[in-house]
Amino acid sequence: MVVVGAGFSGIGAALRLRREGWRDILVLEKASQLGGTWRENTYPGCACDVPSSLYSYSFTPNPRWSRIFAGQREIHDYLRTTAERYGVDEVLRCGVRVVEARWDQNSGRWLVRTTDGEYRARVLVLATGPWHEPRRLVVPGLGEFPGPVFHTAEWDHSVDLAGRRVAVVGSGASTVQVVPAIQARTAALHVFQRTAQWLLPKPDLPVPPALNWCADRLPGIRHTVRAGQYGLQEGIGYVLRHPRLVGPLEAVARTHLRRTVRDPVLRGALTPDHRLGCKRLLTSSTFYQALVQPHVHLHPTAVSSVRGRHLIGADGTTVEADVVITATGFRVGEPALARSVHGTTGRTLHETWAEDGPQAYLGTSVTGFPNLFLLLGPNLLSGSTSAISVLEAQLAYLAAALRHLRREGHVSMDVRPAVQSAYNAAVQEALRTTVYNAGGCSSYYFHSSGRNTFCWPWSTGRLIRSLNRFDAAAYTCHAPSTPAPVPAPRAVAEDTFPADDEGITA
Ligand SMILES: Cc1cc2nc3c(=O)[nH]c(=O)nc-3n(C[C@H](O)[C@H](O)[C@H](O)COP(=O)(O)OP(=O)(O)OC[C@H]3O[C@@H](n4cnc5c(N)ncnc54)[C@H](O)[C@@H]3O)c2cc1C
């Protein structure tokens, strides 16, 4: 089986399936090392915004988190050590980009074309990440800007910001992390904000070594901490699903703003015009403090063009800068390979989804794409959950699906169209009343068709329960037929389903 991508999802998949006794796994990663998000986002201040004890695999806790919300380097190290410890390194091939995958009906296999040749795999797992492709700032004149221009996800560490005039374009999750981290170094820092965002304080404290010590030795403490954090995130999730309850959280955010920002004009510019949670919820206890520094300037406007060293806002604001940092987020929606994965009819995922946007059954299986499993696929995430909680539930589902195939001796499984449609209709109906849909903003949660293709509308508990119950009746399964002769493939990932055997630990 081929897993594409070696971030939390791809590493997690390899780990889980190896524990289940699957041996013919190959994880293909286009970069030179594993880590995904946490390899690429090296900008100053980069950290998780879900507490690390929850934003980590439940089965391999880290007793050494230095802060409640660990920074990028610590998270990357955690992933690397976890992969090493569980032998994922043995099945990882870095520097191999998957270029295309085609389902071959005759052999019941995926033909996976890569920069390292072709592989054949019974099962294809797409773990290419929802926040992977940087969204570029496209405005006239940016290409001719005479200084460094880079995206937060492609931080240029050779650029010294000391004493420079820096423009940061964007007001999302990376902006609230990067601005406090760099402001003290700059001569002037200009933040271009198209949309004001809700910002809650972030209780980002060092973890007392005594707590780490106890959590390492007393699993009860560890579980209690994790459960407490899960409960807190779920509480926020509950509020976001019931907009009438959002008021108190908005009051907390407003108080946070009022206490830090005294200037009523700046405060007005930072006050959102939509409901909290409508866009991804942001947390920081240092962003507003950074904005009130005398050399930091907020411009509540989009950048509309660049002329020489000048960035020009849609409202006519003109700012001179030496460095431009685009904190414009990611192209969220389809997986990175959607245009290159071809199903039973030859159509790609992108073509299949062109009209209504991405949809899958339980965010995992797509009709017409047998034995394909999407990790962190459509409509699985929300504004408050740890992606790792969702991922682990999906991995349990993937393991159950593969056990079913093996037990029944089937070669492929394809989700029934009616099951996928009914499921997605229910998801869309439930989303209607959530703050994601009814909060009065536009966000990356939405496809151009107007459907919210990103959010899960119910509790994470319900998501875990749904994914823990693998329902074979939702799929059409195929028994082996006489395979048509196929040209000799690269045999590296030539996988068979292991027999129901020893060595499988659930
Ligand atoms: C700055 C930042 C902070 C975040 N903080 C949080 C947080 O606090 N809590 C949370 O829940 N989530 C957070 N996220 C979301 C985060 O992306 C997910 O939690 C998680 O790390 C996704 O893991 P992944 O393995 O699915 O994807 P990724 O980490 O994006 O990994 C995908 C991998 O696939 C590889 N790949 C892509 N295409 C190909 C190809 N064609 N061939 C081979 N390899 C390929 C990539 O190189 C990459 O290594 C954050 C995201 C960002 C950007």
TrEMBL record:
Pfam families: Pyr_redox_3. This is Flavin-containing monooxygenase. Gene3D superfamilies: FAD/NAD(P)-binding domain. It comes from Streptomyces cellulosae. It comes from the Bacteria. Keywords: Monooxygenase, Oxidoreductase. The lineage of its organism: Bacteria, Bacillati, Actinomycetota, Actinomycetes, Kitasatosporales. One of its GO terms (molecular function) is monooxygenase activity. The keyword Oxidoreductase applies. It is an enzyme of class 1 (oxidoreductase). Its EC number is 1.14.13.-. SUPFAM superfamilies: FAD/NAD(P)-binding domain. InterPro entries: FAD-bind_Monooxygenase_sf, FAD/NAD-bd_sf.
